[in-house]
Amino acid sequence: MYLVAPDAAIVETLDFFPPIVDDAYASGAIAAANAMSDVYAMGGEVLFALQIAAWPEDAPIAQLERVFAGAVDTVREAGGVVAGGHTVIDREPKFGLAVTGRVDPQRILRKDALRVGDALWLTKPIGTGVLTTAHKRGDLSPEDLASTIASMVTLNRGAARAAVEAGVHAATDITGFGLAGHLHEMASAAGVEVRVAMSAVPLLPGARAHALGGSFGGLERNQAHFLSEGRVRLDVSDEVLRVLALDPQTSGGLVVGVPSAHANDWERARRAHSVTAARIGEVVGGSGVTVTA
């Protein structure tokens, strides 16, 4: 964040990765929504973006153009513009955005702002990691793929606006560390304990069925890191829920910490912005993350 005026700061973020779905337009839209999410996690608005692409020399340029189109349309939906970009030749396609946004420094959403007594709300269902892995294997139904893509291309803009309007101060977006991993970041930064009930966490269609479908590299890294030294405690016997708690997400929702004094304001704001959200847990005294059934 870079302060440019008492009521304005510039935020910069960058994210890119290989395609996780076959449809080129959807790949561009997903990458754009994912990259812009860091701006929304701070309560900001997107101004403009630069595209970053790596493309195989023998791959159809028309496909790359579809990737660009998906990103341009998604940034436009966010109220921003794509101002340019850069492409290099690479054996594996990769795509993403460098995003510039604006945030009011007096109303910024922060990872370290959780307080004891806050309720935790999640604004998107989880499961994109196991579902996109199933898609790569050819095991995902068209219906479940469609709902997964629809979730990933949905912007966190409305959720961010609702949080800012409600006067809350704590939020983060759920991406590669998974739900429990990103909650650990928040708990550690704020010096509190987060408790989450997986029965309250919304799941994407098909997520439960595919959660035990095989080995997931990102999941295994998350488990190795967050389950060591008590960072995340999984008091859950259901192996499916244990997997989904740390399933790496792409373009996941926001987790918002809502103090009881702001609960009514949050309800009004999220409904005004058509944000579907679930209360999944609470903040208590202690440290780390405890996940229960």
What does this structure look like?
The structure is a single chain. The protein is α+β, with helices and mostly antiparallel strands. The protein has two domains: 105 residues, 60s Ribosomal Protein L30, Chain: A, CATH 3.30.1330; 184 residues, Alpha-Beta Complex (Phosphoribosyl-aminoimidazole Synthetase, Chain A, domain 2), CATH 3.90.650.10. It has ten helices and twelve strands. Strands 7-10-6-11-8-12-9 form a seven-stranded mixed sheet, sandwiched between helices. A five-stranded mixed sheet has the order 1-2-5-3-4, covered by helices on one side. α1 packs parallel to α2 and α5 runs antiparallel to α10. The longest helix has 18 residues. The model has no long low-confidence stretch (mean pLDDT 96).
* DSSP helix fraction: 25-40%
Individual helix count:
10
Strand order of the largest sheet: 7-10-6-11-8-12-9
Oligomeric description of these chains: single chain
The stretches of 5 or more residues where confidence is low (pLDDT under 50) are: none
Reading the helices and strands in chain order gives EEHEHEEEHHHEHEHHEHEHEE
Q: Within the CATH hierarchy, at the fold level, what is the topology of the largest domain?
A: Phosphoribosyl-aminoimidazole Synthetase, Chain A, domain 2
Shape: globular
Give the distance, in angstroms, between the N- and C-terminal Cα atoms: 37 Å
- Kindly report the average pLDDT value: 96
Structural class: alpha+beta
What is the number of strand segments? 12
Task: Please state the second-level CATH architecture of the largest domain.
Answer: Alpha-Beta Complex
- Main β-sheet description: 7 strands, mixed
Task: Tell me the domain tally.
Answer: 2
CATH superfamily of the largest domain: PurM-like C-terminal domain
